Amino acid sequence: MLDLSQKAEKLYVQAYRDAEYREEVSGNKFNALVNPASYRVAYKFEFDESQAPGTSGTNMKFNRILPGDFNFDFLFDGTGVVKDMSVLSLGIANPFEKPGTVTEQIEEFKQKIIDYQSEKHRPYYLKIHWGELLFKGVLKQMDIEYKVFAPDGKPIRAIAKCQFAESIADVERAARENRESPDITHERTFGGSDRLDLLTEKIYEKNTYYIQVAELNALDSFRNISAGSKIYFPPLAK
């Protein structure tokens, strides 16, 4: 059950200078005016769809996992209707209060999140925090839709539709990946009950490469291999 007495936590975005998210940019933390009613995370997978001529189907061979996308809308409001709270609260606007512009809010967002790092020659890396959500990435695209205007034409409400792309440092990515991939070199210590063709099949998902593996390791025979021998399995050619 939702505990309404629990203190609400705001969604915020923090800028970093480096891909490892260690060099936090002081002062470049942007708090959302209101927390989202929803957000969308997309995971994308790439498969090899090549198909031999004359065949009726294909085996979808996995290629890679593409960076995930995080989509969220930021609200900028100067009407006085939306209060600066952690949850959406529609109050009664003061009809005598002059509506504020959202221009400064958007400029603050751009300065903290978008602006180009001259010394790094790139935009900032970003972390998005909210509750259990922690998304690491970069701002890929932002579309601003101006919704409400003052009589003089100044915008007083806008929505920034943002798409963030996941960005993971090479060290972290390597730690996450399955090290049994056929795209990297493997070393195996040959056991007394091992068979080269079965080891080859386990690594490459087919056993037709065992002769090439035997040749690479300068083996006289792929059958009579001494226990304790070091066998190298190279990555598959692309």
Describe the structure.
The chain is of the alpha+beta class and 238 residues long. 15% of the residues lie in helices and 34% in strands. The protein contains 4 helices and 9 strands. β6 and β7 (155-166) form a beta hairpin. It is elongated. It starts with 11 loop residues before the first strand and ends in a 5-residue tail after the last strand.
Main beta sheet, described?
7 strands, antiparallel
User: What is the number of beta strands?
Assistant: 9
Q: What structural category do the secondary elements indicate?
A: alpha+beta
Distance between the amino and carboxyl termini: 53 Å
- Unreliable sequence segments: 85-96
Radius of gyration: 27 Å
Query: Which whole number gives the mean pLDDT?
Result: 77
Number of helices: 4
Task: Name the overall outline.
Answer: elongated
**String of helices and strands:** EEEEHEEEHEHHE
Q: State the share of residues found in helices, binned by percent.
A: 10-25%
Provide keyphrases for this structure.
238 residues, 34% strand, alpha+beta
